Amino acid sequence: MRINREIRADRLRVITEDGEQLGILLLRDALAKAEEAGLDLVEISPSAKPPVAKIIDYGKFRYHQQKKEKDSKKAQVQIKVKEIKFKPNIDTHDFQTKVKHAREFLLKGNKVRITCVFRGREMLHLDLGQKVVDQFCLELADIAALEATPKLLGRAMSTTLAPTGKRPKPIKRPEQGETSRAENENPKGSHS
């Protein structure tokens, strides 16, 4: 933005700080009005015919503009892609641990890239890797959606899961002092 003497146009449509229109003025007259008010002349719309300039405090104007930009950046959601790698012959416990980590990433709103890496002769058994990837996707189907079918790129089969926004329902457990329905129906001491 051009301010004060940086403005190149010789005629400007001038607006005061309050929004009052002063009309089309010569640059020197507009600068005189701004100096008289103790403010700056800021070119707001340089592409208009004639260009529009406003008499305002430039420092305050820039501050508010930066604050708006900062607030709009805060409102944007940054989606990160987290990657989880494993081999086709992964152990059950390791598999469950990786599923748990992927679930945490998805619940935080991140995407998860699943990669099954094949080494050596494992390339002969791509179906085993496909089964593991499919099982992984099935485990997370309640909170994630598959973006694309798993693809083999070189020695790695990968796909991406995106969060659906659905949260799994928590399991309600009886609180301390409460009794479950089974205990109420068959109280201790009575035999059926």
Write the element-wise H/E pattern from the N-terminal end onward.
EEHEEHEHEHEEEH
Task: Work out the count of structural domains.
Answer: 2
- Residues in β-strands, percent: 25-35%
CATH architecture of the largest domain: 2-Layer Sandwich
SSE-based structural type:
alpha+beta
Anisotropy-based shape: rod-shaped
Unreliable spans: none
Mean pLDDT across residues: 82
Largest sheet: 5 strands, mixed
Over the alpha carbons, how many angstroms does the gyration radius reach?
A: 33 Å
The percent range for helix content is 25-40%
Query: Distance N terminus to C terminus?
Result: 88 Å
**Which assembly state applies to the chains in this document?**
single chain
Count up the helices.
5
The CATH H-level superfamily of the largest domain is Translation initiation factor 3 (IF-3), C-terminal domain
- Under CATH, the topology of the largest domain is which? Translation Initiation Factor IF3
Assigned CATH class of the largest domain? Alpha Beta
Count of strand segments: 9
Explain the overall architecture:
- The structure is a single chain.
- This protein has 2 domains: 4-58, Roll (Ubiquitin-like (UB roll)), CATH 3.10.20.80; 81-163, Translation initiation factor 3 (IF-3), C-terminal domain (Translation Initiation Factor IF3, 2-Layer Sandwich).
- 33% of the residues lie in helices and 26% in strands.
- The protein is built from 5 helices and 9 strands; from the N terminus they run ββαββαβαβαβββα.
- It has helices spanning 27-37, 58-75, 92-107, 126-139, 181-185, and strands at residues 11-15, 21-26, 40-45, 52-56, 81-86, 111-117, 144-146, 151-153, 156-163.
- The chain is rod-shaped and about 80 Å long.
- The N and C termini lie far apart (88 Å).
